[in-house]
Give the backbone structure.
Amino acid sequence: MRAVRFHDRRDIRVEDVPAPAGRLADDDVLIRPLLCGICGTDLHEYIAGPIVTPRTPHLYTGAVLPQILGHEFSAEVQAVGSAVAHVRPGDRVSVQPLISPRDDYFGKRGLHHLSERMGCVGLSWAWGGMAERAVVHGYNVVKVPDSVSDAQAALIEPAAVALYAVDRGRVGPGSSVLVSGLGPIGALVLLAARAAGASLLIVAEPNPHRRALARALLPEAVIVDPTQDDLAGEIRARTEEGVGVDVAIECVGLEASLNACAAGVRRRGTVVQVGLHLRPAAIDAMQWALKDITVEATWCYPVTIWPRIIGMIGAGLLPVERIVTATIDAEQVVADGFEALLQPGGRNLKILVRAG
């Protein structure tokens, strides 16, 4: 079968590999991936990896490079193990890709995303979403109704990251929110914050194409170029008595962005860290103390969030499909996918890959 595999830095190949074979384990599901997103984590692996893809066998899953990529994807069920009852062949599903013990410290508390032994489909598992077939555990598949399209189902995983950030910021009706960085997660945070009832949304983004997308996603949002405009001044001008926003959500993973969030949030406000920093960041800890702010760092998402997002998408509250800027075939995944997303000032935001 055809599969997109990561071998090493700047080395992704579309290859023919053996399809899953043999009897399924009792709790396994054989699926046919439909659409799969290219994630920022995939991009990091491509330009700087291996980072989370394992050179030696993963301590829990046993996976090792080369790795079939893809952890944001929709699929169709082909076959199920004897213990799987919640899906059956023909069902369309969204894949929750985290794989972890159910019986370690965090698993026993339902905090599966925090397990120190956690693996991930498409990053540290034998299979991934950029292939014609994959095998996952039963707990990795969640059935989607007809009201959720294949593209929407593929975007539930990044939407889970975004909604978790909004939850951790306690965004609610009437909240004022700064979104720093309008990559795919930032765009989904913008939509999720609006769905949560935020009344003022300010977006800081230097890329003009992404600023235009922000305007299209949410015309009432205040869009600022932090490299040219006075972000702090815009925040003061638009918040009551100039105190700052209630919540600032950092979606870039850069020191300057984190510090802009700390500067822009009001006293007793909340900064939510979503973007992954690849190097240590210098901060003004005294400012944090004087403003008495809360800093919430996030990692992945609670795996139980899938049904909630499916309900929001089906009801039209979270139009995740609007962040998609291109859909490509797997054969073009490097040139029209990874390289296109890495272009400085590029026009693409979220690219989906046809898996089959």
Observations:
- The chain has a mean pLDDT of 97.
- The CA atoms of residues 27 and 241 lie 57 Å apart.
- The longest strand covers residues 28-37.
